[in-house]
Amino acid sequence: MTDEPIRSGITAHITIVGGTKEKSKAKDAIAFYKAAFGADVLFENSEEAGDRLMHGTLAINGSILMLNDDFPEMRDGKPMAPPSGCTLTLEVGDADAAWQRACDAGAQVHFPLDNQFWGGRYGQLRDPFGYIWAISGPETG
């Protein structure tokens, strides 16, 4: 039993593909998320016989992101499809600063950051692991 409060809401849990028993890609993702989004590592648990991450928990901008390496042997060796159909949205006070930090860390522009018709500033980036991140904040200028 733990004294930690029970979290409510939805927590994204992503799988990072491309790693091997000898080299974790999820640990590379953690390094990227630290540089791009200021992530703090709350928990990491690697497999016993190798380098792959079984479970990691990050705090990003007050929210939780969980991640792990892919384990194809749990699917009879079948490859996992690339990430699709999901956007991770980061709500920030300064979208331009968050955008620049992520781009400087290696994120690629998917949908340019700009003031949008609904009154917010919004754009999308693709991280090096295939996930789409939306940066959203107050409209500027």
How is the main sheet built? 4 strands, mixed
Overall shape: globular
What is the chain-wise order of helices and strands? EHEEEEHEEE
Gap between N and C termini = 51 Å
Percent helix, as a range, is: 10-25%
Would you tell me the overall average pLDDT?
93
Radius of gyration: 16 Å
**Poorly predicted residue ranges:** none
Number of helices: 2
The helix/strand class is alpha/beta
Topology, number of strands: 8
Strand content: 35-45%
Largest sheet, spatial ordering of strands: 1-4-3-2
Written description of the protein model:
With 141 residues, this protein is α/β, with parallel strands linked by helices. Helices cover 16% and strands 38% of the residues. It is built from 2 helices and 8 strands; from the N terminus they run E-H-E-E-E-E-H-E-E-E. It has helices spanning 26-37, 95-105; strands at 12-16, 40-46, 53-60, 63-69, 87-91, 108-115, 120-126, 132-138. The strands form 2 sheets. It has a 4-stranded mixed sheet with strand order 1-4-3-2, with helices on one face. Strand 6 and strand 7 (120-126) form a beta hairpin. Helix 1 packs antiparallel against helix 2. The chain is globular and about 55 Å long. The termini are far apart.
Note the topology:
Elements lengths: L11 E5 L9 H12 L2 E7 L6 E8 L2 E7 L17 E5 L3 H11 L2 E8 L4 E7 L5 E7 L3
Parallel strand pairs: 1-4, 5-8
Antiparallel strand pairs: 2-3, 3-4, 6-7, 7-8
Helix pairs in contact: 1-2
State the gist of this model.
The chain has 141 residues and is an alpha/beta fold. Helix 1 runs antiparallel to helix 2.
